[in-house]
Amino acid sequence: MKLIGSLTSPYVRKVRVVLAEKKLDCPLLVQDVWSEGTTIGQSNPLAKVPCLVLEGGEALYDSRVIVDYLDTLSPVGRLIPPAGRERAEVKTWEALADGVLDAAILARLEATWAGRTEGERSHAWMDRQMGKVHAGLAALDQRLQGDRPWLCGTHLTLADIAASCALAWLQFRFADQPWSVQYPQLARLLDKLMQRPSFIDTRPPQP
């Protein structure tokens, strides 16, 4: 199988971290989905990454679908409980972290997309999206209060990976904002995960 993605996408990073934690070998094919020459549409009709192409040529897309599948391929480092309330809890926190990213990316596109002039940008829209970002991060940070080591259970799960990928991307793309100060418990989790080879090896290239 092969993973189609970019080096800066936080959703792709989430998948790459899971691959590393599960000790699964999967080459990364770097694609710029904004390029006129991109071929991502041949595998994902939505032209989005990440996209996991399986051995037979079938494709899986959406990072949540991909990581769910990857966690079944190896018993090493189980990241998602197999069933029940514990599974729903991990997937809910993953969905919240991904929702933070969804909102932040919409805000950034509104602020930076070259297809609009400054007068055409909606600051009310950007404020609305960033309000969602802060609400999501506050909930994640609150979950970690009291020196709780992980978001769910007693060991690393997909919830921790998703939350850390989200905060790391915000620090990368919105570097002027004091994320670590505003959300110290979440920053503590990120600092811990940044010591793991899976996070070290997936750092995006610095601008």
UniProtKB/TrEMBL annotation:
CC per GO annotation: cytoplasm
GO biological process, one term: translational elongation
InterPro entries, per the entry: EF-GSTs (IPR050802), Glutathione-S-Trfase_C-like (IPR010987), Glutathione-S-Trfase_C_sf (IPR036282), Glutathione_S-Trfase (IPR040079), Glutathione_S-Trfase_N (IPR004045), Thioredoxin-like_sf (IPR036249)
Domain GST C-terminal: 83-207
Domain of life of the source: Bacteria
GO molecular function: transferase activity
Transmembrane regions listed in the UniProt entry: none
All copies of domain GST N-terminal, residue ranges: 1-78
The entry's keywords: Transferase
Keyword flag Transferase: yes
Signal peptide: none
Protein name as it appears in the record: Glutathione S-transferase
Lineage: Bacteria, Pseudomonadati, Pseudomonadota, Betaproteobacteria, Burkholderiales
